[in-house]
């Protein structure tokens, strides 16, 4: 298990007694520019993630403008880092994200940064890392980010990738929120002992960028922003 245990990210967002309707959101990168986010909010968006960094050599050139637009629209927001375990250590990439505006703010609207774990076109599957090494890399990133921000990262991944590349590790299920990637009408099987958190279900739809949902109510979502 990751040694750091931090407030808001300890509780997996889930209402066991009655499942509320998922909250709508989206995630964007440089591909989307700065969309009409006031219209997105009017269409029901509650939260958004913005790609910030990848590896240790890429920063989204539109990140600051996109993040400011998300903030101006009054959306709950978070940044995400695209992991490249083949390029440097998890700790180095956590520092890179933090040094390039991937911070957490105690404003009641900022989600913990997210870590995007998936294969990269042109790179070997699982970056040629055995599951034990991949889990250690993620732990290294998480421990460092928690030290810098006070929060464990949200972890973005697919069930297929997590099973293949971490051996379906359950090391993060208790204190990291899952952001599942599965383009389907149903979430399907969840990896690694997780319960439902965020779900990226489509690459396009009524909101800008990728279409996301949060399985919890607004109070639970806001709970992730406060550390309480």
UniProtKB/TrEMBL annotation:
Protein name: Hydrolase
Family assignment from sequence similarity: Belongs to the glycosyl hydrolase 25 family.
Keywords: Glycosidase, Hydrolase, Signal
Protein species of origin: Amycolatopsis alkalitolerans
Source organism, top-level taxon: Bacteria
Keyword Signal: yes
N-terminal signal peptide: 1-18
Entry annotated with the keyword Nucleus: no
GO terms for MF: lysozyme activity
Gene Ontology biological process: carbohydrate catabolic process; cell wall macromolecule catabolic process; peptidoglycan catabolic process
One Pfam short name: Glyco_hydro_25
């Amino acid at each position: 298990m990751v040694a750091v245990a931090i407030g808001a990210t300890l509780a997996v967002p889930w209402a066991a007694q009655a499942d509320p309707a998922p909250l709508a959101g989206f995630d964007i990168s440089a591909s989307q520019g700065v969309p009409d986010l006031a219209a997105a909010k009017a269409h029901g968006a509650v939260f958004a993630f913005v790609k910030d960094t990848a590896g240790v050599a890429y920063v989204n050139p539109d990140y600051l403008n996109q993040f400011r637009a998300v903030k101006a629209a009054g959306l709950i927001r978070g940044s995400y880092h695209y992991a490249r375990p083949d390029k440097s250590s998890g700790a180095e990439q956590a520092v890179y994200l933090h040094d390039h505006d991937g911070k957490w703010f105690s404003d009641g609207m900022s989600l913990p940064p997210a870590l995007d774990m998936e294969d990269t076109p042109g790179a070997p599957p699982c970056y040629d890392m055995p599951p034990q090494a991949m889990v250690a890399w993620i732990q290294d990133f998480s421990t460092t980010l928690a030290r810098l921000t006070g929060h464990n990262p949200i972890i973005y991944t697919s069930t297929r990738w997590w099973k293949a590349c971490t051996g379906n590790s359950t090391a993060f299920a208790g204190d990291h929120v899952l952001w599942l990637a599965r383009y389907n009408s149903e979430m399907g099987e969840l990896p690694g002992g997780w319960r439902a958190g965020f779900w990226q279900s489509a690459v396009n739809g009524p909101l800008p960028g990728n279409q996301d949902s949060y399985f919890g109510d607004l109070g639970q979502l806001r709970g992730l922003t406060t550390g309480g």
